[in-house]
Write a structure and sequence with these properties.
elongated; 115 residues; mainly alpha
């Protein structure tokens, strides 16, 4: 089937409508560098926190299975505590809270479990 209409006329909802007139300067998006830095830091820290929590759960499983020596359990505990302290410091540095890192996935709920 052929038609004389252009793709924009066939699917008007898919058109890009720009209200600028010829000769108007291009539109610019104003971005606050501090807000951008904080948002990026929040995203990175969210990923790190997710990985930290997964590592912690895996470590607890290994401890529960009984395959670790007392020294290994002690070292694992100290390492996880230090990592949590580092995360606290980073969140504080960027002015973020634990809730700021917990992305809402809509119907799936929050990304990070709430303790």
């Amino acid at each position: 089937m052929t038609t004389d209409r252009t793709p924009d006329e066939r699917h008007p909802d898919h058109r890009f409508h720009d209200e600028r007139r010829p000769g108007d300067p291009p539109r610019r998006i104003t971005v606050d560098p501090e807000s951008t830095r904080r948002s990026l830091a929040g995203l990175v820290l969210t990923i790190v926190e997710l990985l930290r929590q997964l590592m912690e759960r895996q470590a607890l499983r290994r401890v529960d299975q009984g395959g670790l020596s007392d020294e290994q359990i002690e070292e694992l505990g100290l390492t996880l505590m230090a990592l949590e302290e580092n995360m606290d410091e980073l969140r504080e540095h960027f002015g973020l809270t634990q809730d700021d890192l917990n992305i809402d996935l809509g119907p799936l709920g929050p990304l990070l479990p709430r303790d």
